[in-house]
TrEMBL record:
GO terms for biological process: cortical actin cytoskeleton organization; establishment of spindle orientation; Golgi to plasma membrane transport; regulation of establishment or maintenance of cell polarity; regulation of Notch signaling pathway. One of its GO terms (molecular function) is myosin II binding. This is Uncharacterized protein. SUPFAM superfamilies: WD40 repeat-like. It comes from Euroglyphus maynei. The lineage of its organism: Eukaryota, Metazoa, Ecdysozoa, Arthropoda, Chelicerata. It comes from the Eukaryota. One of its GO terms (cellular component) is cortical actin cytoskeleton. InterPro entries: WD40_repeat_dom_sf.
């Protein structure tokens, strides 16, 4: 279990950060344009940590915390609309895609660390897919931005459905069914 983050740079450069409740870090992204690290902890809290850029600064600073997805109960059976199953950062490093157990995707603005009103709903994706493929695709397992094309993401669900979603125009471009 990782309860703290060590960051190593050039020879002799090392940073440490430990969360107050000794939370385990389960996913991490480096955001180079901000000189920051985005961490998701085991309780589904999401944190943005600023790495010092000047030799006079020695401490990592917590810029933001978003506790929207934190659950009070630890049994994992909570509200499926707030259980995070996947995270992805877009190429511009200004938008975080948050895949959920219910198949929806929330979007977080990295610059102000708030959730956007827009939600990519599984129901919207399923409207463009034939009936025989709509059988409970499950939770979001993976999200990847399409390389070289801004505004499109590939969404992989845990029950064989993959959708290419245009989140700027809010429509499906293509879908794939993987035989198991």
């Amino acid at each position: 279990m990782v309860h703290y983050k060590c960051i190593y740079g050039k020879l002799g450069v090392e940073f440490h950060y430990q969360f107050e409740d000794e939370l385990e870090i389960v996913q991490i992204f480096f955001i180079s344009r901000l000189g920051a690290v985005l961490c998701m902890c085991v309780d589904f809290s999401i944190h943005l940590l600023k790495i010092p850029t000047k030799s006079s600064q020695i401490d990592i600073i917590k810029l933001y915390t978003n506790d929207f997805f934190v659950h009070e109960d630890d049994n994992g059976d909570g509200d499926h609309t707030t259980i995070i199953t996947s995270l992805a950062l877009n190429g511009k490093e200004n938008l975080l895609f948050i895949g959920l157990k219910n198949g929806d995707i929330r979007l977080m603005d990295i610059d102000n660390f708030t959730l956007k009103e827009d939600i990519i709903r599984l129901d919207e994706i399923l409207k463009s897919i034939p009936e025989e493929l709509k059988l409970k695709p499950g939770s979001v397992e993976v999200i990847e931005e399409q390389p070289g094309i801004d505004g499109k993401i590939l969404i992989g669900y845990n029950r064989s459905l993959i959708a290419l979603w245009d989140y700027q125009n809010k429509c499906i471009d293509n879908y794939f069914q993987i035989e198991q």
